[in-house]
Amino acid sequence: MTTAPRESETPEMLDHFEANGYSPYLFFDSEEWARFRADTPLTLTADEVHRLRSIDDPIDLHEVRRIYLSLSRLLSAHVESSQLLFEQRNRFLSTSDVAKTPFVIGIAGSVAVGKSTTARILKELLARWPSSPKVDLVTTDGFLYPNAHLIRHNMLNRKGFPESYDIGALLRFLSAIKAGLPNVKAPSYSHLTYDVLPDEFKVIDRPDILIFEGINVLQSRDLPADGKIVPIVSDFFDFSIYIDADENLIHRWYVDRFMRLRQTAFRDPNSYFNRYAAISEEEALKIAEGLWQNTNLKNLRENILPTRPRADLILRKGDNHLVEKVALRKL
Ligand SMILES: Nc1ncnc2c1ncn2[C@@H]1O[C@H](COP(=O)(O)OP(=O)(O)O)[C@@H](O)[C@H]1O
Ligand SMILES: CC(C)(COP(=O)(O)O)[C@@H](O)C(=O)NCCC(=O)O
């Protein structure tokens, strides 16, 4: 049975385009989307999904089958066609000594929406394609300025906002990846110490696919005063995904996760948040609410949500982190 895509959907999904009575997206509910997996094999086990998911993210094998197999199949079509285009271009240039650069997939969305889980599940699914591609995953938090810099510039409470990232370093990293360079270093971040790890790098050595995940990956920059056009992160993407959910749900996920981390990660004396493991539940709730309202929600509204219409694919989650709707950009 074929599914006829609808050209309009709920107003909250893509209000801007809907308001204009047209949309560059096709919309599917999760059951329609699930059918596109066709005969894509399920290559993950329940235990592996359990291991890959973040704390408080209830994703299970059923959700992987329902949502992520279709996504893996779609991405396989995109990667294959980029390979074909690459071969055609080499014929056009009468050359065979240009190496193919990594296919880069960007994953954006709010803090606490579950980007990390999606990125890790995708990485495993893609690496298990019959062609066994080499797949790497890099998160943008490594490109945050160190806390010492944020404190010096009085912006520790702006962590995650555009100015808290070393955007030059981030663009240099992606340029090097897309130039096909070997052994490109990506800086690391620790959620435990809440800071970048000055001497820890991940070496990215010409993977077939690179997944690049972070709240800021679809953001542009203000035009500099000298009027020079500068590249933006998504110029380096071959495909981009935005993980979406109602802000009230993300709010709940953030606060619930904070309260759960209080009983786990925060107990580690090395945790930046260790001081919140010992305070009363009421006080801890106040801290979590403050971080959500003053930093993460503000950032979502001002800098993250406005980038949603740039994505090639939007996964809209409902209660319990389950994807309810999918929007796919028309070609
Ligand atoms: N304070 C913290 N201590 C330990 N782990 C954390 C902390 N905050 C977030 N994490 C973990 O870091 C990862 C990234 O979280 P986040 O940046 O909110 O993005 P997302 O929820 O979209 O993956 C998640 O796996 C989350 O569980
Ligand atoms: C590091 C973050 C900006 C998230 O980056 P992400 O990995 O989601 O791209 C975020 O986890 C964060 O620290 N936000 C600041 C407020 C807070 O402590 O929640």
From TrEMBL:
Keywords: ATP-binding, Coenzyme A biosynthesis, Cytoplasm, Kinase, Nucleotide-binding, Transferase
Cross-referenced InterPro entries: P-loop_NTPase, PanK, PRK/URK
UniProt-annotated binding residues for ATP: G109, S110, V111, A112, V113, G114, K115, S116
EC number(s) given by UniProt: 2.7.1.33
Coiled-coil region(s): none
Domain Phosphoribulokinase/uridine kinase positions: 104-261
Subcellular location: Cytoplasm
GO CC terms, sorted: cytoplasm
One Gene Ontology biological process: coenzyme A biosynthetic process
TM annotation in the entry: none
Catalysed reactions, as listed in the record: (R)-pantothenate + ATP = (R)-4'-phosphopantothenate + ADP + H(+)
Similarity comment: Belongs to the prokaryotic pantothenate kinase family.
UniProt protein name: Pantothenate kinase
